[in-house]
Amino acid sequence: MFTTTGSRGLYKAPLSKGLLLVLNGLTVMLTLLPHYQEMFVYNLQAVTQQHQVWRFLLGRLVCLDVKDAFCSSLLIYNFRIFERRFGSRKYASFLLGTWCLSALMDFLLAQAFQFLFDYEVEELPAGLLAPVFSLFVPFYLLIPRMQVTQVLSHIHITNKSLVYIVGLQLLTSSPFMWLLALSGLISGGLYHSNVLWMQKLLFVPVWVSRIGRFILEPLFSSSQPTSETPLGMGATLDIQRQQRMDMLDQQLLLAQYNEARRNTRQQPQSGLFQWTRFFPSLRRRGQNRPPVQPRPQAQTPPSTQQPLLDNSPVAEEQVGVHPCAFISCPFTGSFVLLVFFDPPSCSPKLDFPVARLVEMGFSRIDALEALRASNNDINMATNFLLQH
């Protein structure tokens, strides 16, 4: 999942784990025993005309359709972040409040649909669907949106996109699923906004929470994962926003470095051929090239010609002697003299960032390549070298 929800698994989310195990277990049992499914059908006509009020309880808990159970389980698994952030009691109070409000909303929306379109809604999809849809309200309002990638340079894929896609799949699984979705969103908005003091009227009492903590929590609690890297789950909303901003800064630095590297590669070289296309080692970080020891030569006057192979502004100063090699051209058969230019070591402005990166443990070749591509920005170069 793209959602950044802390550690993987159901650690510190016993209520979410209990819902997943119990509700999905009942769904599988009813699939194997179809003659008991009639008791769990969410029939509004039977509730209003035959006064079967118990269908409000059984018909709004267990999914009879396996596809609905699978999609709702994925959403409950992703929404476990609210149980970790608010605590199991407050999370259970939200589910209880939206479950009671959505029961009323289901009846009112069905009556409104019948009044507007003269069509009576008899059955609705069964399961804990309206409270699941109500969790999209705090998910939209409280979870920060962080871009992960782009599709076709216009469509932004964020850490919340996959959750919305699963919700859309659940929305289109049944004809009247939109009625439950609308009921859940209205109920979630009312309870989250605390309209008419709903949070003080519909909540889980403390004594019920204590009973569940001592009886049910040992059954559904999960151990802390040890074989994974923590993704950063702050205790408060401000800490979480700061963590997301740090991740965004790292992604921005990496994107700037990649853009600068692409621009450097796209600059044309002088001459008939662009030799970097035929010799990839010239445009890599230089790890595969063996170090060349310059032979002692006599002092020659500085050359007045500009370098032909290095197009960065760092190498515009002239240097006395450089390592060179003769390479045969694969097309003409003639030999070409390749001269490897390095930035001058006499400039204090250039020696300082290179020395800093070398002191951090990076090789000089990698440091020079990173600084050249990042326009001598030591922060951007350090960020790239740490991540590669």
TrEMBL record:
SMART domains: UBA (SM00165)
Spans traversing the lipid bilayer: 18-37, 57-79, 91-112, 124-143, 163-191
Domain of life of the organism encoding this protein: Eukaryota
Keywords of this entry: Membrane, Transmembrane, Transmembrane helix
Membrane topology type: Multi-pass membrane protein
Keyword Ligase: no
One annotated GO molecular function: serine-type endopeptidase activity
Subcellular location, record wording: Membrane
Protein's recorded name: UBA domain containing 2
Organism per entry: Sparus aurata (Gilthead sea bream)
Taxonomic placement: Eukaryota, Metazoa, Chordata, Craniata, Vertebrata
